[in-house]
Amino acid sequence: MKKIVIFITAGSIKEAESIAQGLVKKKLAACVNIVPSIRSIYAWKGRIESSKECLLIAKTRESLFPQVEKAVKRLHSYECPEITALPLAKGSADYMRWIEKSTRR
What we know:
Helix 1 (13-25) packs across helix 2 (65-75). The protein has a four-stranded antiparallel beta sheet with strand order 2-3-1-4. The chain has helices at 13-25, 65-75, 93-102, and strands at residues 3-10, 31-44, 47-61, 83-87. The chain has a single domain (3-102), classed as 2-Layer Sandwich (Alpha-Beta Plaits). The protein is 32% helix and 40% strand. The relative contact order is 0.31. The chain is α+β, with helices and mostly antiparallel strands.
């Protein structure tokens, strides 16, 4: 069963906590870490923008990505939130089993 790490940015710690709580409560993620302060520089609607954001790092099953994406879009204030995933290539056997046990099938 493939595992992934999903990166999500949010505009405030309150929004980040709401998203994290929603994902873990619904067993869409085993764990979500919140990095409270990052600076993002990005192109948006023809301009270069700079924003203070929070970064969420969610660990889950690859098969749950579509449900995570849907839940994040429902909970998020951004028009186009970052919801990107990378494969979790390696991890301790205990941790990888914990992700499986803590998420929906």
